[in-house]
């Protein structure tokens, strides 16, 4: 249940944020080689983003939570490294965007995911307690 919620949340988050930032109105960057939605965009939204975040949250569940700031910063830097590689491989084409904006966005998105994970755990625990 937890896994499905996390993957669904990140599918939604990735597709909405990319539609806002890469859509016709703001048009900060292109994904793949075309500004229009493609099947490969769906693949990225369904598998790449959600599973990477799931891996991050899985690792998070095993670390000492006193080091959460360090962990989040390390995760953001690793993700920015993958993004820079993606830019070199033309997965993303920046227009009015730069990697520092991504650092801010990833910090917010990973923090949202940590809070979402904690919320889901509380809700699941309440459901189990009622049963």
Q: How does this structure look, described?
A:
The mean pLDDT is 91. This protein is globular. The chain has helices at residues 2-22, 39-60, 68-88, 99-130, and strands spanning 29-31, 92-94. The longest helix is centred in the C-terminal third of the chain and has 32 residues, at 99-130. By secondary structure, the protein is mainly α. The chain is built from four helices and two strands; from the N terminus they run αβααβα. It has one domain. Strands 1-2 form a two-stranded antiparallel sheet.
List the SSEs and their pairings.
Layout: H1 2-22, E1 29-31, H2 39-60, H3 68-88, E2 92-94, H4 99-130
Antiparallel strand pairs: 1-2
Features of this protein?
131 residues; mainly alpha; 4 helices; 2 strands; globular
